[in-house]
Give the backbone structure.
Amino acid sequence: MKRSRIVLSILVAMALLLAACGQATEVPPEPVETEEAAPPEPTVAPPEEPTEVVFERGETLYVSGAAWGPPSTWNPFQPGNLANTTGTIGFLYEVLFAFDPMTGEMTPWLAESGEWTDATTYDLALREGLTWSDGEPLTAADVVFTFELGQQYAALWFSNVWVYLTGVTAVDDTHVQFAFTADPLYQEWANNLYNIPIVPEHLWAGLSEEDITIGANENPIGSGAYLYESHGEDRNVWVRNEAWWGIDVFGTPAPARIVDIRTSSNNVALGMVIKGELDLSNNYLPGVADLSTRGYVSTFFADAPYMLSANTAVLFLNTTKSPMDDPAFRRALAFAINTGDIVNVAYANLVRAANPTGLLPSLSNFVDQDVVDRLGFSYDPAESRSILAAAGYVDVDGDGFVEAPDGSAIALEVTCPFGWTDWMEAISVIANSAQEAGINIQAATPDYGAWNTALQSGTFDMTLNNWANMSNTPWTLYNLLFRHPIQELMQSGNFGRYDNQEIFDLVDALARVPSTDVAGMQAACSAIQELMLTEVPMIPLWYNGLWAQFSNATWTNWPTEESAAATLPTTWSGYWQLGGLQTLINLEPVPAP
Amino acid sequence: MSLQVENLRVYYQTLRGDVKALDGATFTIEDREIMGLAGESGCGKTTLGHSLIRLTAPLRYVEGRVILDGAELPIADMARMDEFRMKRISIIPQYAMNALNPTRKIGTMTQELIRSRRMEAETSPEELRRRLDLVRLPHDVLNMYPIELSGGMKQRMVMVLSTLLNPSLLIADEITSALDVATQKAVAEMLVEFRDRGIVKSMIVITHDVSILYQVADSILVMYAGQLAEKASTETIIRSPRHPYTKMLVSSLPTVGVRYAEHKLAGIPGTTPLLLDPPQGCRFRDRCPVAFRKCVEVPPFLELAKGHWVACWKEFGSHA
Amino acid sequence: MKTAKGSEFLFFALRNPKLRVGLTVVLFFLGLSLIGPLLTHNAPFDYVNPAGADPPSSEYWFGTTTFGQDVFAQFVEGLRATFLVGLIGGGLGTLIGVIVGFTAGYRGGLVDEALNMLTNIVLVIPTLAVLLIITAYLEVRGVLIESIFIGLTAWPWTARAIRAQTFSLRSREFVDLARLSGMKSSKIVFTEIAPNMMSYLLLAFILQFGGATLIAATLDFIGLGPTTGISLGLMMNNAVLWGALYLGMWWWFVPPGLAITTIVGALYVTNVGLDEVFNPKLREM
Amino acid sequence: MRRYFGRKFLIYGLTFLLAVTIDWLIPRFMPGDPIANMLSRAALNADAAQVLYTYYTHAFRLDLPIWQQYLNFWNALFHGDLGISTYLFPTPVVRVLLRAVPYDIALLLPAILLSWLAGNRFGAFAARTKWLDNTVLPLGYILTATPYMWLGILLAWVLGIVLGLFPIAGAYSFDLSPHLSWRFLSDVVWHWFLPFASLFLVQFGGWAIGMRNMIIYELEADYSHYLEALGSPRRLVRNYAFRNALLPQLSGLALQLGVIVAGALVTEVVFSYPGIGYLLLSAIQNQDYFLVQGCFLFIIIGVLVANFAIDIVYVLVDPRTRKGMTGEKA
C-alpha cells in the first residue's frame, strides 16, 4: 500500500509536468531582442476558445517533408533555418512574381506587371489594395525599403543584386522603378523577382541590423494567405488570413489551418501517411509504388517515376586532385557509372536518369540535342575501359584496377553524408560499377559536418550534390556547377574547383541575356554544354524527385499528370512561389459523407 | 531426564558422498546438567549441536531419535521444529557476532521476533530488562544498532535473546572462541548463572577449549571422528579418563585459555581419519597406542561406572 | 586440496543447468557467426533479389531487404561484429577495470583514494552521452574503434568490484603468511591473490561482454556506429529508416534484436550459473 | 555521516568540473565547421555567405583566445547562458533544453521508480520459490538483456502498428495545441505510454534479477540462520532479508543511472519523443555543438542530482552509513 501511494503521487506529478511542458510549447516564446510580443495580434486567433486548441480535421491540412528541424525563425532573410518554417516566404511574406516551372511562365503575384522599359530600367506595377495582416497597406515604399535593405546589409542573401542595381525609386504608391548598370544580370534578376520577399517598412524600419539579418522575428506580420499561429517542437501551425488581399484574385484558400509537420524521420512520415494523418507528404518515402497500389497515397504520375523531377544529383569531381584533373579520366568515369542501377535498385524507379547536361526536363528546350548526341555519355563499361586504355590508364599490377599513366595506383572515395539513406545506396552503386570498369572507387559515408567541410574546402575525391532548385533559367544550374571565382571555401557551388575561365565567361554571358531572348539563351547554353561535355568537370547522374505523396481522403484536387494546369505539389522551402502555394489554394475539401 | 539422544546419525552431504559427521550418538543429559562437548575440530560436535535444533542441507538426517522432556523432537522437519525452537530448545550460535540483523534496532528486532513467535504475553519488557541486567548490558542497547555494540556485548545480547523464552535445553556453540580470556570467564559464569536461576534447565557447551569446561561443565562428553569416545563428570574426565583419546586430550591439555585446535595434538601420531569412508571399528585405532585386534570392531558406548560411559575395547577387557 | 576444489567446480559447472543452457546458446551463435557466411553465397550488401523485399523463404532464410539484400547474409556478418565488440570492448573494459581496481585495492592509501575518486567520477558520467559525442568526432568509424571506445568508458564498475574483492583478499591469512614469509608483492599477487580472483574476473568479463554488445547496438541503431560494414544494430537502424515497421518487413528488424537479446540474456544466465558454481551458498541442494 | 557527504560532494564537485571541461572541449574537437554547415543549408551567394560567416563566428565568440573562451564559458554557465543553437537558430540553447526537460522527467521518473519498486518486489517473491525461479525468472533475464530500442521497436510494431492501440511518435497529437484539458492530458499520456513501457519493462527485468540474487545471499546470512534457529517464521526472515537486500539494490540504482539515461535516449529516438536524448541526437547530427554542450551538461546535472538523491535515501535507510561506520556504497 506504501507502494501504491508512491505510484499515485508519481502519476500526479507526471500529469502536472506534462501540462507544464505543454504550456512550455504553447506560450508564444517571450520576446527576444527588441520585438515586443506578448499579446498575440488580433489576426492570430486567441488560443482560449476550445475550438482553437482542437483542430477540425475537415478544416485542417496536414503537410510534412519540408522542415529540417523544429521551427525557430520566421525571418524571411534568415538564411540558415528558414527551411524549418517553409512558407515564411509564400504564406507569410510574399514575392513580386511567381514562377511556374510547369509552364515556364512568370505569373504576377504582388506585382501586377513588370517590364524592361530599356536595357537598364525595369518598371514594376503593384496590385491595388495590397494590405499587411495588421491592416496597413502594402505599397511601393515597402518594395523600395526591402530592396534597399539589401544595399544596406551585405549579410542579406540578395545583397549582391546591388552589384548591377543602382537605384530603386517609388514612382507612386503602386509603381516602382529599378535602375541598373550597363550590363545587368537579367537571368539572376528574373530569379530575384520571385525570390525576394517583401517586408513591411512600417514594422521593419525600426529593427536593428541584428534583428533583420539573424533575428527570429517571432509573431511576424505578413501580407500572405496564411499567418503564423503557433508552433511546437515538431510543427508549425499556419492559420488562414481572412483579410488576405488575394481572396478576390485567387479565391479563398480552403484549409482554415495548415499544420506543417516536422517528421523526425521519413519513417515517421510513412506511418502518418498510412494512418491518413498526412494530406501531403513531401518526404522521401520508401516503397511508394507499394503504397500507391495499396491506395494509401496518390502521386503526380500514376506509375514510375511517380514524382516530378526537382533537381539534378551531380557527381562533383575534385579537379584539383589527380587523376580527376584529367578530362579523359573524368569522361571514362562518366561511362563507368551504372545510372540504371541507381534508378532501378537504389531508388526503385522513383527517379529518372539525368540528361548529360544536367538540365531538368522543365528546361529541356535549352538542351542542345546535337551536342548531347555527339558528346553525351551513358553507362558503358567497355567504352569506359577503352577511353582509359587510350589515355594510358592500364592495370599494371593486375589487381583488377587501372593505375595512372605514371604507374601510380588509383584509390578514390565517393562520399555522401551518413544517414542520407538513398544517396548512401546510390554511391555504393557508383563505387561498385566503377570497380567493375576497373576504377578503384570505395564508397564512404562521413557525418554531415565532416562531409560538408570536405565539400567546401575541396578535400574530397568525388561527392554528390544537388543544391540547385527548379528555376526559370538554366543559369541557376550553371551558377551552381561553375560558381566562380574559386575561393578558399566554395560554399555554394563548383565544389570540384573546376577552374576554366572560358566556361566562367560563357556562364556570365548567359546571365546577361535578357530572359525574354530565348534564342540567345539557347545559344549561350549550347556553348556551355559543348565545353561541359568535352571537359566533363562533373557528372550529372539523376534527377532527384520532387517527393510528393498526397491523400485524397480529406482534401482533393491535387495536381497530377491529368490535371489541366498542374502546379507543383510541394511545400519545400523556395518552392512556394514555384506553384506550391497555388497548389494549396486550389485544394478542395472532401464533402463529409 | 531432560535430553535423551538415541543412536543419532547425521551425515554431511558432499560431492564425493556422505561424510559420516555424526555416526550413532547415544547419550542423555540430566536436568540442571551442563554438559561440555569436547573434541578436535571436525569431530562432529558442531554437527551434533546443529542437528538438535536446525538440521538443514547439506546436513542429512539418517536415523536416531532425540527426546526432550519426554517429547520427541522432529529434528528432520524444519517446519515442525519451529514449535520447539527457542521455547524448548535454543542455541547461542558460533557466529553470535553476526547473528543480529545489522539494519534493525536491537529492541525493535527483539519485539518483532517475539511477536512473530506469538509470545508477547510471556515476555514483559520488565523481564527483558531484567535479563539485560543479568548479562550486565545497559538497557539502551535496545535503541542501538548491532554495529554500535562490541563483540562481547553482541554475544551477551544473543544470550539474552536465545534464552528469553526459558528453553529447557540451551546449546552454546563455541561461544568463547572469539573472546579474550577475561571475557571468556565472564561469559562462562553467566552461563552457569542462567542455569542456576532456572532460566534454562540444561545446557550443552560445545567447545574445543576444554579449559573453559573446567569452569562451567558438570560433565564432559568427548567425541572423536563423529563418534562418542567418553562421557563422565568433569572431575572424572580430568582426573581419571579411561578412553586413550581422552587421556591424550587431557594430558596434552595446556594452560588455561590456549587453544590447540590450530596445531595437531602434541605427541599423537597420525591425523583424524577422513569421515568419507572411516576405518572399520574404532576410529581412533591407528592413532591409538594400545590398539589391539578387537579394535577392528566398533566398540559400544557402555556405562562402566555410574555416569561414566566409555567406548573402548581395552576398558571393557580389563573389566571383563 | 586445490585440485579437489577445482574438480568440484568442474563437477558443478557440468551439472549446473543455467550454465549449460547459457553456454550452449552463446556458443551456438558464435558458431553461426563463424560458419554462417559459408551457408550463404550472397554478400551482405549485394542486391541479390530483384523482387526487392521478400519474406523468409527457402532461398533467403531471413528474407530480403527493400533493395533485395539477403538479410541472413547481413545477420551473420552482423553477429561477427557483435562478438567482436563484446570481445574487444568487454575485454578492454575488464582489463582496465581490473588494473585500476586491483591497484587501488592492493596498494591502498593515497593510490586507492585517487583511483577510487577517478572511478567514481567516470562512473557518474553517463557513458552513452560521452560515446555519442566521441563517435561523432570520428569521420569514418569501424567496429574496432567503436569497441575500443566502449571499453574505455565501461570499466568503472568492474574496477569497483575488483577493488572490494582485492581488499577482502589481501586481508586473508594466506596473504599475510606469504607477506610474512617475505614474498615479493608481485609474486604474492600472482601466486596467492590472482588464482582466488579468477572466478571473479570471469564473471566481470561476462557482464562487460554483455554490456559492450548492448551499448554497441544502441550506438549503431542511432546511426553513430560503424560507418563501414554491417552490424546488428545497423540492421535495425536501416530497417526502421526504410519503413520496415509500416511495410510489415518484420524479418528485417526482428532477427537482429532477437539475436542480441538471446546472446546477452544467455550471458547473464551463464553468469548466474557460474556464480552458483563458485559460491556453494547459492547452490540448491 | 558528515564525512560521508563531504566525500560525496567532493566527488560530485570534481565530476562536474571535469564534465564542464569536457563539455567546453566538445566544439573544439568537432569535425567540420558548424557555422559553415548552417550557412550551407541555404544556397547563398559567396559574398553574403562570407559576411554571415564572420558575423556568426563573432556572435558565437569563437574568435577569442582559447583561455578566454574557457573562462567565458564558465562565466556564461553561471549566468545560465549556454549560447545560441545553430540548429534552431536563433533560439537560446537554454530555452530549447527547458522545453525538453519536462518530457524526460515525465518519462524517467516513473519508469525508474516504478520498475525499481515492482522489480524488487517481484525478485524477492521469486527467490527460493522453485517454480517461480525456474519459470518466471528467465523472463527477467530476457527483459534485462533486451536492447531498449528493440523492445521499443517491437512495442511500436505490435501495439502501435499491428494493433493500432498507441501512437508511436511525438508527444501529443497534431490536431491539438497544448492546453490544460482532459482531452489534451489524456492524449499526452497516450503518447507517453509506449516509451514509458519499454523503459519500464527492461529495467523491471534487471531489478527483479538483481533482487533475486541479492536476497538469496541475505537468506544465507548468519542473522537469517539465527532467526531460523529461534524458530521465527519464514515471513519475518524474508522480510529482513528483503529490507537488507534493498540496500545494494539502491546503490545498484545509482550505478545504473548512466545505463538508464542511455536507454531513455535511444527510446526517445525510437518514438521521436522530444526529450533531451532526442535533442542530443539531432544536435549531433546537425553539428550544433552549442546544443550538444547544453544537452550533455543537463544530462550530467540530472545524473548528479539523482545520485545525490539516492545518497540521501541511502543514509536514511542504512544505519551503518548514518553511524559513519561505512562510507562507501556497494
In short: Chain D touches chain B at residues 221-223, 225-233, 235-236, 240, 243-244, 247, 317-320, 323, 325 (CB under 8 Å).
